[in-house]
């Protein structure tokens, strides 16, 4: 947990891996997940690297695995994850896996092809059976003289009608949605010189491609003339009809139908044997594919990592550079020694200096991961700067609860998060694919604290579903006011609103023990009272939050060995912030403590005093809070304005003076270092990268050397410091006003709760009293109230309060000390993140 407050120390190491054991060493590092490799072959294309052929073989295997996986899914089967941890296979096993995979894929292709062919043949036989068995009866006379016509000659040809023509038949099947179009086209193209009969199959037939049942339309066309027959065949081919031979004699058709049934029976037996063999092949694929996928995936990752290594001059070892946490270096050394023991030469780990900023490593657990995710969404912190996540664990749920304070709503959110926390180890919960559910599940501990803090602030506001609760005795005594005021019946009839005067003896017995007195929920000035209370509370919380952020910057300056920033930046910032807005908080507390109910009517306005503070004026109608207030206010404004030039010019002048001093001493110092000793000096000076002084303002990182000092540009430093000064000074005003969103959203949430109660539950209760069947009426009323509460007050209002709390942390709090310009340590690991 210590690394949560600041990222861990990360070192740049150089690995010398024997060629014979390089694969085993990198595989072991992938299992441990300790190092992040740096690409030493950035200038080399991916096609010219050492292990590119091995990577291609792995990619070809992955393509074959994809084919096998799709075939398994096509058969309605599932691939179970492999049991246990599978290591990356040795390189010699790659050929064996490739041969077995190719053999399985070829068997599967052959069997699938045979199955498709047999199904297509069976489908043809079934269609032919349907055509012959549909009962199409050819007409005895196929002529077009059935219909009477005025143009029919009275005397027929002595040779008889159409004695030179022979009646022919075309039988087949077509898809139902094409039957009507086919019939119309045949009639128009053949000009009616045919007779067509269309019938739907009695039973649906299985489609040979999709396997789904489908109905077909069988047809029988009788015609005469060769040209007509050619037209019919062309048209049926265009409609992709299945055309079958059709015998004129009934006995021949019956014999053909029996032969087709026998062939179908034999084909079904062959198809059954083929499908049984296919299931056996798929069973082997189902058993062997999951472990192969994991192993080849790991092997490909190993070769990709090896492609980032360079080869030594003797070609006896591979050289790699990697980032590794300092505390994991002994584990890294031991893992490499164990992996390279069989090769006879041990791998070596050597820590080397660096001028690049190391990656940021912050270890998290289930509880802290969501809070660290909030911080990282703004930007990953620079190496070893203060991490806001530990403080966000408290401040984020609390600021959310200030805007969402309600005992009932907070309790519902807490119970929902608690249910997810208790069920977090169930496999069904972990493997859920719903994106919204995974979002809520990932932030379950954040929701848990948000609900818990909302219950706490709900007790402070004394609100539970917008209703006040009487836990302790109220501090206001109405009977004492009645006894001492002498209210008569006529006075009560003329004054529907009565005022409780705290100056009357016995009326106000003292403050409520915890939170707001429930008697305020009955007062007509309830909203005005909460306005004043929540507005002052927002300003106090905002100034405290911002001041805490400025103080956290002190730890950054001390860690990066920049003590001058304490006097030239942190101190002016605190004086400016606290001299103006800290004084406003002081006035709020002073007025609360020094003015009682007896003097409340003559109490001065803090807002007018604060405005007069900047105008250097006074208001004759607004008397001072204390003696010498005008002098104190003027001194604070002058002091705050005096901090602006210090904040603007202090750091640039100091850095410029430091640069000139170093530039004068540089020639003398460089004469003491021999040319051959420069590398050794760099190794000694930068042995601990965490001690390097990375400049937060100049955005430069690394060990400061002569080259970097020569690149000092005063104009860039002045410009950067001017932007920082303007942003901070104006931000103090805008950020303080931004915290008033705590007041606004808190009142909005309370008023929405009140409106929902008044328009739903109160109406239902009144209806129940009138009708007399309260239980029956309240069931739908309470259901509507529950749905609206969850949808509007929990989901919509909760999301709104969450986004505003997120903005307060990112903009108003973190920009006081957190740059967020780093990058995460992404170790080479085979583990899959949950």
Automatic annotation (TrEMBL):
Primary location recorded for the protein, binned into one broad class: membrane
Pfam families recorded: V_ATPase_I (PF01496)
Localization, UniProt: Membrane
Membrane topology: Multi-pass membrane protein
Transmembrane parts of this sequence: 398-423, 444-461, 537-555, 575-593, 636-656, 771-796
Key word Transmembrane present: yes
Swiss-Prot/TrEMBL keywords: Hydrogen ion transport, Ion transport, Membrane, Transmembrane, Transmembrane helix, Transport
Stated family: Belongs to the V-ATPase 116 kDa subunit family.
PANTHER family hit by this protein: V-TYPE PROTON ATPASE 116 KDA SUBUNIT A 3, VACUOLAR PROTON ATPASES
Protein name: V-type proton ATPase subunit a
